[in-house]
Design goal:
Layout: E1 3-6, E2 9-16, E3 19-26, H1 29-44, H2 60-71, H3 77-91, H4 102-114, H5 119-138, H6 163-175, H7 179-191, H8 195-200, E4 210-213, E5 222-225, H9 228-235, H10 250-264, H11 277-288, H12 293-300, H13 305-308, H14 319-324
Antiparallel strand pairs: 1-2, 2-3, 4-5
Helix pairs in contact: 2-3, 2-5, 3-5, 6-7, 7-9, 7-11
Length: 327
C-alpha cells in the first residue's frame, strides 16, 4: 500500500527499480496522493528527491510561543509554563507538532510514572501538553489533538488538627525561637487563609476585626473575620515590614522548620501533617460547629461548592431538625 495513515499524517511509500522513498505528509489524504504521484514521477525520471521539509514554525518550541498568551495573567501562569517547558524538554523543542501521536503521549506518561510523579502531577503536565496541541490545532498545524488520557487522582485528604496537636506544634516553634512561625500557625488555623495569601497580606488589608484578601487563588476578593487569637498573632509582628508575614522564605523559614517539627513530634512520616492542613482544620471546625456549607465556601474562598462538600460528612446530623419543621 503506497499510502497509509500514521498518527496525524499519511505515510507515502514509493518503490521503483530497487529504489524506495518513504515520507510522511501532513494534511489531507489528497495531499498525500499528490505527493505520491510526484515522487513516482521523480523516480521514473531518475532525478534526485528533494524531500518536503515542514516549516520550522510547526515545532513545539514555536507552538509554545503561540500558546503563552493563553496563560498570560492567570494565577497558574508560572506553573503552566514550567510544566510546558518540561514537556518540550522530553519531546524535543524542535520536534514537529505533527509528529506527536497517542503512542508518544503514552511514552511520556510512562516516563513521568517511572520518575515517581503522582497521578495529579501527571495530569497537570498533560494539561500543559494538551493546551499547546490545542493551539496547534487552532492554527491548523494539525487536524486533531491526539488523545491524552486523564489519570485517576486520589481523593484529597481532609485532616483536622485538634487543640492538643496545635499546641504541640506552636510550643515546638516557640522553644526553637521561631515565634513568628508559631504565630503564623495559629493565624492560618483561625482564618483558613492559604499560605500564599497570608504571606502577601499588607497592613492596609488588616483591621482589628477582619482581613481582606485581594489577590486570592481564584481571583475573587473576600473578607475573613479575625478571632482574638488570630488578631493577637498579627499584633506581635513588626510593622517595619510591608505586612505581618512578609519576608518569610518558604524553604528556609517554613518548609525546613516544619519538617524539623515533625521529627521532634515523632511524626516525620505522617503525610497528613502538612501546613495546608491548617486550612483544612479551619474548614472542618466550622462545619463541625454547624456553619452552613455556603458560608464555609465564602470564608475559605472556594471557587466551587464541590470543594466545600468534601467537609460535608463532618456536619452534625440535622435530620431530626429537618423533619421537625413538618410537625
Amino acid at each position: 500500500m503506497p499510502i497509509r495513515q500514521r498518527g496525524n499524517g499519511w505515510q507515502v511509500d514509493v518503490k521503483h527499480k530497487g529504489k524506495r522513498i518513504r515520507e510522511t505528509v501532513y494534511g489531507s489524504r489528497e495531499l498525500a496522493e499528490a505527493r505520491e504521484a510526484e515522487l513516482r514521477a521523480i523516480l521514473l525520471g531518475g532525478r534526485a528527491v528533494q524531500a518536503d521539509v515542514p516549516a520550522k514554525m510547526n515545532t513545539l518550541e514555536s507552538c509554545l510561543d503561540k500558546t503563552r498568551p493563553r496563560w498570560r495573567g492567570t494565577k497558574g501562569e508560572s506553573t503552566a509554563l514550567s510544566n510546558a517547558d518540561m514537556v518540550l524538554d522530553f519531546f524535543g523543542r524542535d520536534t514537529l507538532v505533527q509528529d506527536l501521536d497517542a503512542e508518544r503521549v503514552s511514552e511520556f506518561i510512562e516516563h513521568l510514572t517511572e520518575q515517581g510523579n503522582s497521578n495529579a502531577t501527571i495530569n497537570r503536565k498533560c494539561s500543559a501538553l494538551r493546551t499547546v496541541l490545542t493551539t496547534a490545532k487552532d492554527l491548523e498545524w494539525i487536524d486533531r489533538v491526539p488523545k491524552i488520557p486523564r489519570m485517576k487522582e486520589n481523593k484529597h485528604r481532609v485532616v483536622c488538627f485538634d487543640d492538643g496537636l496545635l499546641d504541640s506544634i506552636t510550643r515546638h516553634f516557640r522553644c526553637a525561637k521561631q515565634s513568628r512561625l508559631s504565630d503564623l500557625v495559629y493565624f492560618l488555623a483561625d482564618t483558613g487563609l492559604r499560605l500564599g495569601e497570608a504571606r502577601k497580606l499588607m497592613w492596609c488589608d488588616i483591621s482589628p476585626n477582619r482581613v481582606t484578601i485581594i489577590d486570592s487563588k481564584n481571583s475573587d476578593s473576600r473578607a475573613v473575620p479575625l478571632t482574638p487569637r488570630a488578631y493577637q498573632s498579627i499584633q506581635r509582628q513588626t510593622t517595619l515590614r510591608p505586612g505581618p508575614w512578609h519576608g518569610l522564605d518558604y524553604d528556609r523559614d517554613i518548609r525546613r522548620p516544619w519538617e524539623t517539627m515533625k521529627g521532634a513530634l515523632n511524626r516525620a512520616d505522617d503525610k497528613t501533617l502538612v501546613i495546608h492542613g491548617l486550612r483544612h482544620t479551619f474548614c472542618s471546625r466550622l462545619v463541625q460547629k454547624g456553619v452552613h456549607l455556603q458560608v464555609v465556601k465564602e470564608l475559605a474562598g472556594h471557587r466551587n461548592i464541590e470543594t466545600t462538600l468534601r467537609y460535608a460528612h463532618l456536619a452534625p446530623s440535622n435530620h431530626e431538625a429537618a423533619i421537625a419543621v413538618l410537625s
